[in-house]
Amino acid sequence: MFFLWLLFFFSFALAEFHSKMIITWGQPANYNSYDNINTDNFWTDCLKQCLEEVDCVRTNTEFCPIGDDAPLFGEDNVIEPYYSINVTISQDGISFWQFNIKCGDDSWLAIRGNQSVCISLRPFPSPYCMNYEAARNMCSVNNGIGLTNSYSDIEELDIRIRWNNSLQEVAINDPNALFSKTKDLWADGICSSGGKNCNVTDDTLQSDFNVINDYAINNRCVFIAPSAPGKRSAECSGTSAYRDTSCLRGAVCRTFPIQ
């Protein structure tokens, strides 16, 4: 009887373990519906869905928190705003929480599956429009690892929004950098004919994808447009995807985390 009671107790405790969730301070101030949740109560429904998933970990580092900053482990202020949390569950069911990398001031933290990376959007200096090789060189200096690309549709949207915002700041500091051409962004990827079977150098990304539009004649490299979703390809040696109406203005770079 005693052993039956123990079995019941541990079964109940295990069920309780899987039905609890830690919610960090605040909630996103700006988000779109995703993951099959499309209601007016998005955040509430998101938490409910996360509670039902044993391995659910959702983080938001850009728009949290709402209201006053919460203290971090007894500190008076949040002193490490760019971090992620990994949860590892051992064979005996014990959870281990680990804080991940911190990115530099010119980068932000992106979660790619079970990996965390730092991304930086870098505009070219004068003459502003440059080719793919210049993009690779720019991404390899100043704490840069190299070119990267979007991991998901949500990350691509984030890149496009940030790129448009950063160009406005560039124009304020350098009025000559403001012109009417489309300001496209080189990204990791070299493709075969027709923009097929594109391969990347960043090992946190998937290779062998196809672009939605190919504007190249010979060698094809991937770029992201600032106003429309989807990856495209242009001539690697070129500085414009659409001749005189566009400019390959910068690059999506991956950077080293702060040590």
Short description:
The chain is of the alpha+beta class and 259 residues long. It has helices at residues 2-18, 42-52, 132-139, 153-173, and strands at 85-89, 95-99, 108-112, 115-123, 144-147, 182-192, 196-199, 213-214, 220-224, 231-235, 246-255.
Q: What would you note in describing this structure?
A:
The protein has helices at residues 2-18, 42-52, 132-139, 153-173; strands at residues 85-89, 95-99, 108-112, 115-123, 144-147, 182-192, 196-199, 213-214, 220-224, 231-235, 246-255. The chain has 259 residues and is an alpha+beta fold. It folds into 2 domains: 2-99, no CATH class; 108-255, Mannose-Binding Protein A, subunit A (Mannose-Binding Protein A, Chain A, Roll), CATH 3.10.100. Strands 3, 4, 5, 6, 7, 8, 9, 10 and 11 form a 9-stranded mixed beta sheet that branches. It has a two-stranded antiparallel ribbon with strand order 1-2. The radius of gyration is 22 Å and the shape is globular.
